[in-house]
Amino acid sequence: MKLKKNYEYIIIGSGFGGAFAAYNLAKAGKEVLIVERGVWVKRDESCWDEKKLHLNDPLYKGLTPAIIDQKKGKLKPDWPYDTVGGMSTFYGAAALRMREDDFEGPPLPGTDKKDTSAAWPIDYKSLSSYYDEAEQMLNVAGIKGEDIIEPKRKKEFPQAPPEKLSKPSKLITDAAKELGLHPFHIPLAINFSNSNSEQKCILCSTCDHYICKLEAKNDLAVKILP
């Protein structure tokens, strides 16, 4: 692709904010350029290789370190992972909506009130339809109403989660129910069915902090940026 001299919009970073903004601007017919310092991830055996991804000399180690302030005033460089799609390529695909009261500001310590000085300038209702759209685009799997503190939603999730839980998940679910709690399926941007002719998740144990070799995890480099 040959770069032009002028663009209507230039977006720095291809993470969730940048990718979705670019998608909608391009859809509206605007000329958009995304500037991303990361590289496209490899869809090979390295996706599930912890040593290549995270140890020794990480495969997607960034070019610029973030300086972390440690105890006793010591500074420590921390190298972020730079990939096209931001951290969506590594995240565990959890796609929870913020709750209505999350927009009202953080809790005031020692009280049941909110710090309204830090409240959002918009509320959940203003974003509800955009959550619907994003969930459709990312093919999020979940069960409406199963989460008892779920914010109001009109639409069902695009797909259902797997019927059978993994052994660790079932142990946690059963223990939680015995305690009178209400466990629920975390909404996940993963293809658990191949109804759209897409690769189906094989339910492996490498998802969170790994890259999906099969592209069954709907990260931004799979779903939005193309």
Output the keywords.
226 residues; alpha+beta; 7% strand
Protein architecture, described:
- The protein is globular, with a radius of gyration of 20 Å.
- The mean pLDDT is 92.
- With 226 residues, the protein is an alpha+beta fold.
- The strands form two sheets. The protein has a two-stranded parallel sheet.
- The chain is built from five helices and four strands; from the N terminus they run E-H-E-H-E-E-H-H-H.
SSE layout and pairing:
Layout: E1 9-12, H1 16-27, E2 32-35, H2 50-54, E3 66-69, E4 75-78, H3 124-137, H4 167-178, H5 220-223
Parallel strand pairs: 1-2
Antiparallel strand pairs: 3-4
Major sheet attributes: 2 strands, parallel
Percentage of residues assigned to helices: 10-25%
| Strand adjacency order, main sheet | 1-2
The secondary structure category is: alpha+beta
Number of strands: 4
Separation, N- and C-terminal Cα atoms: 14 Å
Unreliable spans are none
Radius of gyration: 20 Å
Please state the overall shape, judged from the principal axes of the Cα atoms.
globular
The H-and-E topology, N to C, reads as: EHEHEEHHH
Short description:
The chain is α+β, with helices and mostly antiparallel strands and 226 residues long.
